[in-house]
């Protein structure tokens, strides 16, 4: 600390936001994987739902389902979209999400190679504009609501396509993130 500066360090906010969410709202942050060593993360209300440390995140599309009314996690799952046939089980997982739930989705490594039409349709029906545009190793994050509508002014989706000329990590795109606050009284 410099002489004459008595400024205390900033208070840590939920999910490492720079500023706190307003009272009566949920904080969230979703980060896609990036490069070979930066794993995807999903944080909701300061709880890390999916991460490398928890051991529940992996290559493909990672999805956390949260009960919007209680703010409690319903389930988390990883669906490898590079090896194996998991598009159908991912589609069933998405469709099994109860009404009044939030679905938080992030890619890690590759989320597109074995993503079939059923999965693209299920995610598109939740409001994704980019899922049909995913390419090999695209970094993608998406938050959706089932049974109610999210506010228009929150960022719901972001994508960073793999581009060997622009990639930060030697042929791999950089991680991307979305963070924000969701009011707790939507659709009530």
What do these coordinates show?
The longest helix is centred in the middle third of the chain and has 10 residues, at 87-96. Strands 5-4-6-7-8 form a 5-stranded antiparallel beta sheet, with helices on one face. A 4-stranded antiparallel beta sheet has the order 3-2-1-9, with no helix packed on it. It has helices spanning 87-96, 117-125; strands at residues 25-31, 41-44, 47-50, 60-67, 73-79, 101-108, 139-146, 157-160, 177-183. The protein is mainly beta and 188 residues long. The mean pLDDT is 90. The N and C termini lie far apart (48 Å). The chain has one domain (14-182). It contains 2 helices and 9 strands, in the order E-E-E-E-E-H-E-H-E-E-E. Helices cover 10% and strands 30% of the residues.
Radius of gyration, rounded? 17 Å
Which ranges are low-confidence, i.e. pLDDT below 50, for 5 or more consecutive residues?
A: none
Widest sheet: strand order?
Answer: 5-4-6-7-8
Count of alpha and pi helical runs: 2
| Major β-sheet annotation | 5 strands, antiparallel
**Mean pLDDT rating:** 90
Q: Structural class given helices, strands, pairing?
A: mainly beta
Along the chain, the helix and strand elements come as EEEEEHEHEEE
Number of strand segments: 9
What is the count of distinct domains? 1
**How helix-rich are the residues, as a percent range?**
10-25%
Beta-strand share of residues:
25-35%
- Which word captures the global form? globular
Q: Ends: how far apart? A: 48 Å
Organism: Pogona vitticeps (central bearded dragon)
Keywords: Disulfide bond, Lectin, Secreted, Signal
Family: Belongs to the FAM3 family.
Pfam families: ILEI (PF15711)
